[in-house]
Amino acid sequence: MRAAFVTPPPGLAPLTDFHLEQVQGADGLFTLTAAQDTTVRLFLLDAATYVPQYSPRFSDAQRDVLGPDVPEAHLFVVANPGAGGTTVNLAAPIVLDPSTGRCAQLILEGTDYPLRASLAQAA
Asked: Of 28 and 64, which is predicted with more confidence?
């Protein structure tokens, strides 16, 4: 599926066009690969599957980023595998409108969600 960011994800400018693919055999695990540079790849986790209690609140402006009619947006968190275990970025989720492929990485303000939460503890 094509994932078209409305603005480049933080740290990945000027890239906005990506491909989102589910990893075979791993429910809720996806790769997000830049269309213009396939060496740029992130791992995304479906938040409902891996961090079901995660319920970020978005500002009105953030909700309007994808447009007023996004009835079933999907929420993903960026996963960072490491030697000490996998961490997830709960401070900047990625929201995707599956009907259009439009998406945005929204930086949460005024919350206690960490940039690097242990997946084992966050789940």
From this structure: 28
